[in-house]
């Protein structure tokens, strides 16, 4: 099947670009139908608009309650027949309004080997803890903080002289590879959630 993706992003949108590049290269059976950002100046919106993809800034200040905000997100995504939602550097915690509208079809990319270092500044957390290996995780989203069933992970060694910036850059390179790979498994209908585990068929 061809996925119809809605991408939520708060920043540069480099993972959005990785998805678009994978589609262009024939490695991902998908179409990006809409990009939504909570930040007006998010470069992800420019990436989308430059390709004729609907790009929407949805200001959180207009929706003081998170479920109401997410209800509007769902309305926008459904208007273009999205079937799968990708959180690509999206800095808001999503609610059941979004998750219930797309059951086990909301996917996140996180710059750590979950369940270690959930939440913000995962790379900084890894360096402070002194781990020898970090990496990234693609997972289905549930109502917890980076706690949903894990789809794929990639390991990145932590070098002795790493800073947060250098480690982040190496992890990001793996994110750009891993996210389209995980989405292609979804497109090929090879993923099933059983309990808290993802089975790859």
UniProtKB/TrEMBL annotation:
GO terms for molecular function: phosphoribosylglycinamide formyltransferase activity. PROSITE patterns: GART. N(1)-(5-phospho-beta-D-ribosyl)glycinamide binds at residues 13-15. It is an enzyme of class 2 (transferase). (6R)-10-formyltetrahydrofolate binds at residues 66, 91-94, 108. Its EC number is 2.1.2.2. The record marks 146 as: Raises pKa of active site His. CDD domains: FMT_core_GART (cd08645). Pfam families: Formyl_trans_N. The active site is at 110 (proton donor). One of its GO terms (biological process) is 'de novo' IMP biosynthetic process. It catalyses: N(1)-(5-phospho-beta-D-ribosyl)glycinamide + (6R)-10-formyltetrahydrofolate = N(2)-formyl-N(1)-(5-phospho-beta-D-ribosyl)glycinamide + (6S)-5,6,7,8-tetrahydrofolate + H(+). Pathway: Purine metabolism; IMP biosynthesis via de novo pathway; N(2)-formyl-N(1)-(5-phospho-D-ribosyl)glycinamide from N(1)-(5-phospho-D-ribosyl)glycinamide (10-formyl THF route): step 1/1. It comes from the Bacteria. Keywords: Purine biosynthesis, Transferase. Residues 4-183 form the Formyl transferase N-terminal domain. One of its GO terms (cellular component) is cytoplasm. HAMAP family: PurN. Belongs to the GART family. Catalyzes the transfer of a formyl group from 10-formyltetrahydrofolate to 5-phospho-ribosyl-glycinamide (GAR), producing 5-phospho-ribosyl-N-formylglycinamide (FGAR) and tetrahydrofolate. This is Phosphoribosylglycinamide formyltransferase. The lineage of its organism: Bacteria, Bacillati, Bacillota, Clostridia, Eubacteriales.
């Amino acid at each position: 099947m061809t996925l119809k993706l809605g991408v939520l992003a708060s920043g540069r949108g480099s993972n959005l670009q990785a998805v678009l590049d994978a589609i262009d290269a024939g490695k991902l059976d998908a179409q990006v139908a809409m990009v939504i950002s909570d930040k007006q100046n998010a470069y992800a919106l420019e990436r989308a608009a430059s390709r004729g993809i609907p790009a929407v800034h949805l200001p959180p200040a207009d929706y003081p309650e998170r479920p109401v905000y997410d209800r509007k997100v769902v309305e926008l995504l459904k208007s273009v027949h999205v079937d799968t939602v990708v959180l690509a550097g999206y800095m808001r915690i999503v609610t059941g309004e979004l998750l219930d509208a797309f059951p086990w079809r909301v996917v996140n990319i996180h710059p750590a080997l979950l369940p270690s270092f959930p939440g913000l500044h995962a790379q900084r957390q890894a360096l402070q803890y002194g781990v020898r290996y970090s990496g990234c995780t693609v997972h289905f989203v549930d109502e917890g903080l980076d706690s949903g069933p894990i789809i794929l992970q990639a390991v990145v060694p932590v070098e002795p002289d790493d800073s947060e910036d250098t480690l982040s850059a190496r992890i990001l390179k793996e994110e750009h590879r891993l996210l389209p790979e995980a989405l292609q498994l979804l497109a090929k209908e090879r993923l099933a959630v059983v309990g808290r585990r993802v089975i790859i068929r």
